[in-house]
Amino acid sequence: MPDPGTGEPLLRTAHQLIVENDDIASTLELPRLASRVDVIREICRHLAPYQAGERPIVGATVIAKDLTIDSLAIMDMVMELEDSFDVSIPMNVVAEIHTVDQLADTILDLRSKR
Amino acid sequence: MDPLPSRNTRLAQRRAGFASASEMLDYAAQGQTGISFYNAKGELLTALAWREVRERAHVTARKLIGAGFAVGERLLITADTWPGFFDSFFGAQYAGLIPVPVSIPVGIGGKDAYLDQLRRQLAASGAVAAVGIDDLAGFLAAAAGEYPAVRLHGGKGILDALPEKAVDLRPLGPGDLCYIQFSSGSTRHPHGVQITQRALMANLAGMTGPAGLDVIPGDRAVSWLPLYHDMGLIGFLMAPLSCQLSIDYLTPRDFARRPMQWLNVISRNRGTISYSPSFGYDLSTRRGVTQVPAGLDLSCWRRAGIGGDMIRPEVLNRFADAFEPSGFDRKAFIPSYGMAEVCLAITFSPKGVGVRTDVVDRVALGKDQAAIPAANPQDAQRARSFVLCGRVLPGHLLEVRGPDGKLLADRGVGRIFIKGPSVMPGYFGEPEASREVLSDDGWLDTGDLGYWLAGEIVVTGRAKDLIIINGRNVWPQDIEWAIEARGVVKSGDAAAFSIDTGAGERVVVAVLARVSGKEERLALARDVAGAVREAIAVDCDVALVPPTSGLPMTTSGKLSRTRTKANYLAGLYAAPASPPKPVAA
Description:
A: mainly alpha, Non-ribosomal Peptide Synthetase Peptidyl Carrier Protein, Chain A, 7 helices, about 0% strand, disordered N terminus, B: alpha/beta, Luciferase, domain 3, GMP Synthetase, Chain A, domain 3, 3 domains, 17 helices, about 30% helix
């Protein structure tokens, strides 16, 4: 499924991968498919429309503060990230996330625990 | 797992008229109906017949009593929508403890603000125990740390781990409180409304009776409303329970993610009663309309209530237009008006007629506090639509009073007062705050503005500063304090208020701009908006006020949000991107 914005292919989720590869899926290493770089890139793709001025979006960017994103869009983003990386972020953990780095690490951490 | 039935085959329906919450559950437990929990995919997770809810509550009650908690002590519960809430809430009812349901954290980065709120709620309620879902155990521990009175805190496991002792139950009776409802007052100074068993029973009788929803056997309630809100807890737990209905629950979070599941569950389970603030209908229309599942059939939905925020007729029209092809009947809409200080409900608009509006002249409304019919209802500049909210529930009195306290006749806009058996005795442990809204002869100042129209009340706005965003009460003090606490501006340099955009309320924060350059002004606005989003999880517009003019004050030297708003609407304050306006000498 291409990204409607850029036309680039979206990150495939583990779920899609299993469907496509059927029984060989178990031999593929999922962590490799969602490296930290992948996760950050996906987060930045969601956040790009909300960049404030010339300030680039980096790992230390505070999502709710440094960008022009509104709270509903933040919720949408978290929901879509949860879907595409097939994780569920508990509400207490969400409440402690401020930066792009923290969000990425949370997703990676939850994936590694599966 | 099958959904629970909508009808009891052997138990006659009793429509309210009980003496207490536990008596309602005792009666409903004799039937087959109960509560079901659905996930974001619309899958049934758990179903508990009322009989099981009661049995589980009895176990919890014996554990609480066995642990030495005394009658009347308060149990704080983080009110997520899950079976454990029902265990602890009804467990407290049977143990003689007073439950204090509180909200769960919202949004990212909200930890500190949430902990702060928990601490204030623990202090205001004097709670001796605090429980919630396991995920929140750490937050409860952190908040309870400063309160030695809290003898037990943690996830649901902390209650389960208590030994069940062979003790007699000691259910809260008709003369007792039922629970404490936090929804009033700012988070800095929270006021807990005392919901008494007696007032609740009176309100439930009105709500479910002929002047209210007129519940009948076979009705089925569907709800995504938060259980820490009066409309969720009383409207969609107590009211259906008082009539032995089955209830299907979605969590508020899952509703926000997948609003279509709300309508799906109604359609699949043949739900007949469901409520939402206007924004929920809006969300469903905007996000749902592109993904209407085949076979969606909303023809069963006979009571589509609206309450909890200003009712938006255009939003409801869009919803009806979008879902009429799926069987939705726009005549099922029931605009309603109420507040936690009267348990929940004050008025219901008549059934079977849908949303009725009165179109008045904006100028006369603002200038003369008079609701004069608009000369040209199509003129959006001059005309403003308000929704008729119906007659007051039987046994209650409603008055609209002018600034001098005199009763107003039809179309005179004034403050709404109510008196009757549903009115609270006061805020918990807050005699002074209670006296501010309750007179000696039992009249409650609702803080809302409205006018009479042939025996029906029309609510036009609020006299108090309260902001309501998406059904959530937000006090401007909390917004201002969040900005000041983060050091974005100095204390007293911010004023928050809301404006009516026609499509909903929008928060505006006016701050003194003690910086000049364009970049600095933009950065200030961004920091203000960011602080508000992080602490309160609402979005706002920022207006910059020249420091030389300052923020308007009342004669007693307090910040005047009303005048700040008037100045803003008059265009006196600059948007962050524009250069500072020259200051008049």
